[in-house]
Every structure is written in C-alpha cells, then in structure tokens.
C-alpha cells in the first residue's frame, strides 16, 4: 500500500494509485533537473575557475584563488553526481552549503533582501530534500545498494 493511501484519506481515493505510481518518477525528475541546473550554473565557473575569486573574497573566503575553483567544482561536479544519483547525499550537502552562502551573500552582504536570495533559497530547500532522502529509487546509489 502506498503512503498516499496509508497516511491520509484522499478526496478521490482512486487517485492514490496514480500518485503512488508517479512518486518515484517525480522524485527522479526533480533530482535530474536540479543536477542539470547546477551543471549549467557551474559551467561558467569551471571554464574560468578563478573568475569568482574576488567575489568569494568579498564574502570573507580567503584566498579567493582557492575557494573560487572549489565553488566551481561543487556546483558543476555536484550537479553531475545529482543527475546520476551517485553519492547523492554528500553532493547535496556540499552544494547546499554553497547555496546557503549565496543566500547570505544576496540577502545580507549585498543587501538585496529576499528578492535577491529567492532562487538560492528555493534551490537550498530542494538540495536539503536530497541531502536527507538520498537519490531515490532511480539512482546509481540505489542500484549499487549503498548510500552514505
């Protein structure tokens, strides 16, 4: 029995089986889309790994020449790992940390408030989900039968 019919009563009970059948697909789609977004966002940093050095130093991360490539790698390679569902939890935790720093940067350091940090907040919430739940049924982690 699916958690859709176990945990709550649906107004239209027949939808429980539909929701249950789409649950795994929806989770995998969200993981893959999140990974692709991170890859796309990290690509510019990977091709210019020291380009964000000044920005990371303005947030107090010294030396920028060290933290800029780490930022690039976290976004780009973390995105690849999320797409695959491989080492999903560690990849999500690392990229979650990066995004929480961007929330701080936009909201506090640069004074943009919620509107400046909105995207980072949303992606942080999604990454928190994967950090807690892992890659899901359709992931390399599940296929090999091991997760961190």
Question: Can you describe what's shown?
Answer:
This protein is mostly helical and 148 residues long. The protein has one domain (23-144). The chain has 7 helices and no strands. It has helices spanning 3-6, 15-47, 53-58, 64-84, 88-109, 113-133, 140-144. Helix 4 (64-84) packs across helix 5 (88-109). The model is unreliable at 1-5 (pLDDT under 50). This is DoxX family protein. Keywords: Cell membrane, Membrane, Transmembrane, Transmembrane helix. Its main location: membrane.
* Share in β-strands: under 5%
Q: Write down the overall mean pLDDT.
A: 91
Poorly predicted sequence stretches spanning 5 or more consecutive residues: 1-5
Report how far the terminal alpha carbons are from each other.
Answer: 27 Å
Largest sheet, described in full? none
Total E-strand runs? 0
Transmembrane segments: 12-40, 60-84, 91-109, 121-140
Membrane topology: Multi-pass membrane protein
Subcellular location: Cell membrane
Protein name: DoxX family protein
């Amino acid at each position: 029995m699916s958690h859709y019919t176990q945990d709550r009563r649906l107004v239209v009970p027949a939808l429980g089986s539909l929701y249950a059948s789409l649950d795994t697909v929806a989770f995998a789609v969200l993981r893959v889309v999140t990974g692709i977004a991170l890859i796309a966002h990290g690509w510019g940093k990977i091709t210019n790994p020291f380009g964000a050095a000044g920005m990371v130093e303005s947030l107090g991360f010294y030396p920028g020449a060290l933290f800029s490539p780490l930022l690039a790698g976290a976004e780009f390679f973390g995105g690849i790992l999320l797409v695959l569902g491989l080492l999903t939890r560690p990849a999500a935790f690392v990229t979650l940390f990066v995004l929480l720093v961007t929330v701080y940067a936009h909201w506090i350091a640069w004074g943009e408030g919620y509107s400046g940090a909105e995207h980072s907040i949303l992606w942080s919430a999604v990454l928190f989900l994967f950090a807690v739940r892992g890659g899901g049924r359709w992931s390399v982690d599940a296929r090999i039968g091991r997760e961190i």
